[in-house]
Design brief:
about 250 residues, mainly beta, Immunoglobulin-like, Elongation Factor Tu (Ef-tu), domain 3, 3 domains, 8-stranded antiparallel beta sheet, 4-stranded antiparallel beta sheet, about 0% helix
Length: about 250
C-alpha cells in the first residue's frame, strides 16, 4: 500500500515509512491503537482464513461406548453454511471420498479432510461466516432395505409418509426411529440421517418428523432411498474454519 501511515497511542506517535514493517509487542499499552491512512488510494488485497490438516472425531454411542466399525449401518456427512442454513454438501461417506473411519482397540475414529467448497466463502456477510459439519450415523439397526419412491410429502407440513413394505412395527406403537439416506431431495427436504417415527400408520407405512416443512406435495418421491429401522443414532457436530477470499473496500 503506497503512502505514509501514522500510528497513534497514548505514549506518543510513530511514523511508518512506505514499504516498511513495524512489529508491535508492547503489553503495557492499554489504550486502543489507531491507524490513520494518509493516502486512501490503494489496491484491495485478499484475506484468508485457512482450514489446515485433518479433523478427527470419535464414534461412540449414547452411553459413550465405542461403536464397532462392523455395526455401522450408514454415516452421513452434512456441511452447512450457518449464515443462510444452506446445505453446502451432503452425502453418505462411510470410508469414502474425504472421510475415513478406523476402528482401534478402544476408539473408533472419523478422520475428515474438508474440500474447497466446504470451507470457502466468496461473499462476505458480517457475523455469519461459519460452516458446520455434522456426522450422523446409525448402528445396530434391526432391519434395513432400500426402495424407490417411498417418500410422500404435503405442502407446508413437516410430516413425511414413508412406505416400508412389511416393516414389522406394531401399528400405533411409539419410540421407534428410522435412519434414511434419500437419493434425492423432495419438495425442499433432503432426508438423510436419523428421524423420529411419529406414527406407525399400518403394516407398510410410517410417518416421520422431517423438522422442516415441505415446499410442495409429492407422492412416491425421493428416488431410491435406503432405510434402517430402530438403529442407534449418533450425531457429532464440528465448527470448521473458513477460507474467505474477498476484496476490501478502499
Amino acid at each position: 500500500m503506497a503512502g505514509n501511515y501514522l500510528l497513534l497511542h497514548q505514549a506518543g506517535a510513530l511514523q511508518l515509512h512506505q514499504g516498511g514493517w513495524l512489529l508491535l509487542h508492547d503489553q503495557t499499552i492499554t489504550e486502543p491503537i489507531v491507524i490513520i491512512f494518509q493516502n486512501e488510494d490503494w489496491t484491495p488485497g485478499l484475506f484468508y482464513e485457512e482450514t489446515t490438516g485433518l479433523f478427527d472425531g470419535e464414534l461412540v454411542d449414547e452411553d459413550a461406548v465405542q461403536v464397532a466399525l462392523s455395526t455401522i449401518d450408514s454415516l452421513v456427512l452434512t456441511v452447512t453454511d450457518k449464515g443462510s442454513d444452506t446445505i453446502i454438501r451432503q452425502e453418505e461417506c462411510l470410508n469414502a471420498n474425504d472421510v475415513t473411519v478406523t476402528e482401534g482397540a478402544t476408539i473408533t475414529t472419523i478422520q475428515w479432510e474438508p474440500q474447497p467448497d466446504d470451507t470457502q466463502i466468496i461473499t462476505r456477510t458480517n457475523g455469519t461466516e461459519r460452516r458446520i459439519v455434522t456426522f450422523q450415523s446409525s448402528h445396530n439397526a434391526g432391519t434395513n432395505g432400500s426402495a424407490a419412491g417411498i417418500l410422500d410429502t404435503t405442502s407446508g407440513s413437516a410430516t413425511v409418509t414413508v412406505t416400508i413394505t412389511t416393516h414389522g412395527l406394531t401399528i400405533g406403537s411409539t419410540g421407534h426411529n428410522v435412519f434414511l439416506n434419500a437419493g434425492a431431495a423432495v419438495d425442499g427436504l433432503t432426508l438423510r440421517g436419523g428421524y423420529r417415527i411419529t406414527s406407525v400408520v399400518d403394516a407398510n407405512t410410517i410417518e416421520i418428523d422431517a423438522h422442516c416443512d415441505a415446499s410442495g406435495t409429492t407422492a412416491a418421491g425421493g428416488g431410491t432411498t435406503e432405510w434402517w429401522l430402530n438403529g442407534r443414532v449418533n450425531k457429532a457436530v464440528y465448527e470448521i474454519a473458513i477460507k474467505r477470499d474477498e476484496p476490501v473496500c478502499a
